[in-house]
Design brief:
By secondary structure, this protein is mostly helical. It has two domains: 187 residues, Up-down Bundle (Growth Hormone, Chain: A); 197 residues, MFS general substrate transporter like domains (Growth Hormone, Chain: A, Up-down Bundle). The protein is built from 17 helices and no strands.
Amino acid sequence: MPAQPPAATPPAPGGIRGYGLRTFSSLRIPDFRVLWLGNVGTMLGQWVQVAAQGFLVYDLSKSPFQVGAVGFARGIASVAFSPFAGIITDRFSRRSVLMVMTSLSAMIAAVLAALIIADLIEVWMLYPISIAEGLTDAINQPARQVMVYDVVGEEELANAVAVNSLGGNTMRIVGPSLAGALIGGVGIEAAFILQAVAYGVSVFFTSRIKTRGIPTSKSTSSVLAGLADGLSYARTNRDVLLLVVMAGLPSLLVYPYVQYIPVFAEDVLHVGSVGFGFLASAVGYGSVIGALIAANLTRLTKRGQILVWTTFVYMALVTAFAVSNMFALSFALLVVAGIANSIYLMFNQVMVQLIVHDEYRGRVMSLYVMVSGITPFSALLMGALIDLFGAQVTVACFTGLASAIVLVIGITSRRLREI
């Protein structure tokens, strides 16, 4: 059973202290505090890995295609295994699953660091390593999201998701910065050592959680039957299906633009590597601000309306970024887009977790992670079209189409607006 938050919460004082207590109210729950620290460690390791592995692939191969292909291999593994990950999340102690998967991630990072130190690393080795990382991520991510619900319950779920997002978005800024500093000052191997250490710290804090996160009912059906049952539940439950679609649209049509920010920096805005750094971090800064805002929106009703409009605003702002030819405007648009995206993600995750039945929670969140992980596939198509038509036209068409679809869903789906 999930740990329940305190039955009565005294009113928060005013001023900055009161704001802090409201914003981080879920951290008063002991199990969530250690879970959050473990999640921050995991996110630090993941963002260090994203930056360092891309650098390593390019340093070894001098091929942008190889950089994309290694990321694509990881994406395929994650998407393909996500539905089966839900079975694991619904059948075993979530705390144990997190500890095992995060330990495996730490071992993978340590092996990669050892290969670099021994001067044995070759590009081909990064493909099976990326596939292994994709498999561990496929299990780790939904289990961590469900574990948030397990330790805080319904009352503090919205705030906990926002605070969790705040930690992740902060690591999105800190991780690549630390990786770059270590690569330049020590060597590429130091970044992967940091990744392994961050995962080890995550395992330690996860082990301190008292809530085991054991599913309320354990299925005795076969793995395939359990998988089919979960997919059938998501397909026939209209509310869940709508929210999964709302999660998948940005992944399919919007998020791929991030990989092509270097193209905008170089060919559209002509700001070089320094400008690219600002553009690449803009959404991260906005996401931190958005998470702080979202943490104070936990008592709002009509979450579906907020979800629709923040999703639409996010997509429309990215469309505006795509057609902008002014660096300052482009940077500002991405910052505000990050704010809207952070609020949208919080409401989407909270609504899914509140609607889904306990026995299907892991499988539905695995499906949620799966549709959120289709970005590498559409990124390949976006890249091919950019070669033909240019970055501005291609990205504007993708994100403009996504904006139109969300607008139609928001106008026509009364049910979504009333959730």
